[in-house]
Each structure stands twice: as C-alpha cells, then as structure tokens.
C-alpha cells in the first residue's frame, strides 16, 4: 500500500494533522465503491443545502442516515436474496453501500426525504450568536478605554 508523507506541505498550518489524515483517507479509499451511489450537493438557498443520492432499488427501510463527529454517513443495506437468479446481463447495481460526507463547522442535518429512488438529506448552517460578526460602535467624544477597562483617558 502506498503511503505519502505530507509533513513538508502542511508544516506551516496549525491543523496539519487533520489535512494529512484527510488526504491519506482519500488515497486509501476503496475505488470500486468510490462513485456509488452517485450524488449531488446543492445550495438550496442561503444557509440551506441538500445532498441527493440516487438509491434506486432501495426502500426507505433499507437506508440509514447517521451523524457523528461532523461526519454524515448514509448506508444502504439490502437483505441477501434467497433465490438463485440467472442473469444474462446484470446492469442494475444492487450492492450495499456506505457513503460519508464531512460536514463543515455549524452544519446540521435538518431532515431527510425519499422519493422516486432519490434520497435527499437537508442541511442547515446555524452559526451561534456569539460567533456571528457584530458591529462595534465608535465613540465620537474621543474617549478610549484602556486594556483593563477601568481607566478612561480622553484624547
């Protein structure tokens, strides 16, 4: 198995371990299942997103959606068919899958919907009030607060 060293690339970054681990994971992904099932990521409106997965052949009961540590996981598991079917051509994919999506900061799963073989997971960005930008008023009287906020000096 190939192992690539990213340390020289990410040395100046504070979170270099996370980036290197993420790139290692991409390189070690099982390529046979990498593109299955196909999906779209859509910006629905401001701070509203949707991930749509083509899961034809799966019923809602055979699908599982979970989030843990900022990772959204969608799984599809079909029970093994007891019959021994003889296909002349088998082009309809019906294998089990597990698809993972890394969620950005403050992204929450708002719900999911299944219709016509498409599973849509709705996402919302909710930034806490304390982290939102706020406007600081400027005192036009010329008063400046010192670092300990106990002393006021006039300019």
From TrEMBL:
InterPro entries: A-crystallin/Hsp20_dom, ACD_IbpA/B, HSP20-like_chaperone
Domain of life, source organism: Bacteria
Presence of the UniProt keyword Iron-sulfur in the record: no
Stretches assigned to the SHSP domain: 30-141
Keywords tagged on the record: Stress response
Similarity section: Belongs to the small heat shock protein (HSP20) family.
UniProt protein name: SHSP domain-containing protein
């Amino acid at each position: 198995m190939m192992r690539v060293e990213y340390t020289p690339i990410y040395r100046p970054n504070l979170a270099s371990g996370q980036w290197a681990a993420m790139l290692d994971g991409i390189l070690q992904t099982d390529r046979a299942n990498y593109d299955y099932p196909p999906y779209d990521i859509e910006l629905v409106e401001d701070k509203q997103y949707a991930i749509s997965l083509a899961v034809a052949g799966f019923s809602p009961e055979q699908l599982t959606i979970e989030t843990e540590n900022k990772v959204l996981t969608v799984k599809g598991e079909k029970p093994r068919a007891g019959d021994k079917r003889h296909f002349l051509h088998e082009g309809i994919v019906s294998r089990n899958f597990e698809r993972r999506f890394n969620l950005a900061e403050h992204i929450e799963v708002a719900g999911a919907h299944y219709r016509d073989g498409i599973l849509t997971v709705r996402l919302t960005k909710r930034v806490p009030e304390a982290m939102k930008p706020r406007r600081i008023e400027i005192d036009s009287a010329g008063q400046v607060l010192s670092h300990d906020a106990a002393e006021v000096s006039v300019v």
